[in-house]
Amino acid sequence: MHVKAKILAFGGLLLALTVIFMMLGGIIESNTLFLLAAASYFVGIMIRETNFRMGAAFYLASVILGFLVVPNKFYVASYAAMGFYILAIEGIWERMGCLPEKYQKRSLFWILKYVIFNVIYLPVLFGFQELLFSRQLSLPFLIGAVLAGQIGLIIYDKAYEYFQSHIWSRMRGRFLN
Fold first, then answer.
1. In 10 A of CB 68, how many CB atoms?
2. At residue 118, does pLDDT exceed 90?
3. If exposure means fewest CB atoms within 10 Å of the residue's CB, which of 6, 23, 112, 147 is most exposed?
4. How far apart are CA 25 and CA 33, in angstroms?
5. Count of C-beta atoms within a 10 Å radius of residue 40
6. Whole-number Å distance between alpha carbons of 45 and 169
7. What is the pTM of this model?
8. What are the structural domain ranges in the chain?
9. pLDDT band at 1 (very low <50, low <70, confident <90, very high)
10. CA quadruple 45, 34, 159, 176: dihedral, nearest 10
11. pLDDT, tens only, 9-35
12. What is the DSSP letter of 39?
């Protein structure tokens, strides 16, 4: 009983931090992407510290609470996309543990990451150009936006891996003891 209460309290703390980071994204405009990315990393923390189902529930709760509390709904939608990416790659990584050794898991994992990202990114880019850029983009700028998104994925993913392996691994003992 004590362990479940501790996990729920930990999830509540992460949920509060997630909403605070989303709100700060609207206040500190120069760091919006950084704060939204940091908020989405909490989904990965929840999955790795508990299990996938608890992480999915955490993600859903954070999106719902974000839409209820955060004034700028566009930031909540951006967080939802980033958090869904984390949720999906953590779920894929968990499922890939069942694959036979003959598969090159790292290569397959990166391919699946790119597929998931592009399933999220490309429809938003092509469907909501006027919302994102306040006008329709010409073909060269559209190609540049697609390429910039791919580079952004590499940076976002490397930062997430660094956060999980270096920063969170040092901090987790302080929160979970």
1. 9
2. yes
3. 147
4. 7
5. 26
6. 10
7. 0.86
8. 2-176
9. very low
10. -20
11. 888 999 999 999 999 988 887 888 899
12. H
